[in-house]
Amino acid sequence: MRILQASNIYGVAFGIPSISTLPKSSSQRHPTIAIPAGEALAKSVPIARKFSEQHSLKMGDMEKEGSSVVLEKKDFAVPRRKATALIFSSFLLSNYELPKVAYAQSVEFREYIDTFDGYSFMYPRNWIQVRGAGADIFFRDPLVLDENLSVEISSPSSSKYKSVKDLGPPQEAGKGVLRQYLTEFMSTRLGVRRESSVLSTSSRVADDGKLYYEVEVNIKSYANNNELAVMPQDRVARLEWDRRYLSVLGVENNCLYELRIQTPEKVFVQEESDIRAIMDSFRVNKIAA
C-alpha cells in the first residue's frame, strides 16, 4: 500500500462468507513542519508553503460499473520520491543543518458500492481489481503482491443469518475464521508447517446501527529447505511467509458478509492506521426489493 495516514476518507466495505467502517466525518490532517531556528526557517517555510498549495484537496468524479459505484476522493497525497526531494532541497538551501520536516502523508481512497449484493467499502485508489479470484470482489496492491482485500457472501439458500450474533460471541467467531483460513491454506507439500493464532476479536456498532465483528489472526508458514533429505539435520525449516489476516463480519439480507484483508506482518506495522480505516469503512446494506 505504501501509505501512512488516512484523512477525510469515505466509508467503504465488503464481505466474505466465513466465520468492523470508516467514520463519515474524519478530521483532515495537514502537513506539519518543525524547523529549527536560524536561516533554515526563512528558507524552508516558503518551500513547504508552495508544496502545500500545489497539493490541495481535489474531488474526483463518480463512476458506475454495472451494479456498483466507485467514488473517488483525493486527500493530501504526497509521493515518497517528491517528499524526499523536498527534504533534500531544504538541506541544500539551509547550508547549516537539515531542517526537521514532518509530513503527514495520506493515501487516496475510492469507495466501492455494490448495490446489487448490498455492501460497500473503501480501498486505496492505486489498488487494482482482480477478476476470477473466487471472491465476490477482489483488490490487490500492485506493488506488494501479498497485500489484498476481498469480500465474500454466504448463500441465503444454505443458511439464514439474522445477526452476526448467530456466530456466537466474537471469540467463537474468531476461532471459526481461523479454521477457515487454515482449511484454505492446507498444503500437500512435504515439510510444510503452519503456525497460527487469533490475535484479537472485538465487536462494535457502526454508525448504520448494525453490529459488526472484527477478527485478527496471524499465520506463519514454514517449509524445509530439503524436504527429501534423509537426515533430520539436513531438513532445516525456514520461514516462507508471515502474514496478518483481518476480517470484518456483518449480517444483512439473511447473508453473512466478510471483508478480508491480507497483509505481510512487516507491512502491517507500517500501514496499520490505513488498514484499520479500510476495516472501519465496511458496511452491509439492505437490498431494495
Automatic annotation (TrEMBL):
Residues 108-284 form the PsbP C-terminal domain. Gene3D superfamilies: Mog1/PsbP, alpha/beta/alpha sandwich (3.40.1000.10). This is PsbP C-terminal domain-containing protein. Coiled coil: none annotated. Transmembrane segments: none annotated. Pfam families: PsbP. InterPro entries: Mog1/PsbP_a/b/a-sand (IPR016123), PsbP_C (IPR002683). GO terms for molecular function: calcium ion binding. One of its GO terms (cellular component) is chloroplast thylakoid membrane. One of its GO terms (biological process) is photosynthesis. It is found in: Plastid, Chloroplast thylakoid membrane. Its main location: plastid.
